[in-house]
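To: structure subgroup
Subject: Chain for Friday's discussion

All,

I'm putting the inputs and outputs inline so they're searchable in the archive.
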Amino acid sequence: MLNYRIIPVTPFAQNCSLIWCTETLQAAVVDPGGDLDRIYAVVKETGVTLKKILLTHAHIDHAGATADLSDEHTLPIVGPHTGDDYWIKGLPEQGKMFGFKEARIFTPDQWLTDGESVQVGNVTLSVLHCPGHTPGHLVFFDPDSKLAIVGDVLFNGSIGRTDFPGGDHPTLIRSIKEKLFPLGDEVKFIPGHGPMSTFGEEKKSNPFVGGQWG
């Protein structure tokens, strides 16, 4: 079974997630944008063992502390899709632009593509490539607990912005309607910012993708 804790990090209040298998207590950190002290505090509190880093995409508020976390705990970096390679290479410039502490470039140990899977202990997460916010954006989905970690694709009442380089609004809408919504109305999701919701609720009420869809 999958359990999780949401840890807001960075001045952008990005929802970093600590996820773990309740049988093995093996864990992954999803989108360590910064504030590693906060992440370490939750790791200690939950008593889990970190095994890997998962990335939905490579904007600095999601990936800025990845290299430091990987080095400090010898953790493999898994994801995102290769479409975000230029965002990783641009992390130092992103830091200067948004006033973050210097972020280091890294090379993922494993790039991911649509249809692959990732293990966290005995939990198997499905990988969905959901471009639009960035070209290489991924979503991680646990079909057993019906939980999705969607990064900046979809929010409670909103969607990801598409005005950054590589963003594309029609592509983002397709990702939401063709990849996420078919997973089921009951699926809860952790967005990159703000409160959780369900796909069913967003189908009904989200002004960007709600109402008639398909």
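Points worth raising on Friday:
The mean pLDDT is 96.
The domain at 2-205 is CATH 3.60.15.10 (Metallo-beta-lactamase; Chain A).

D.
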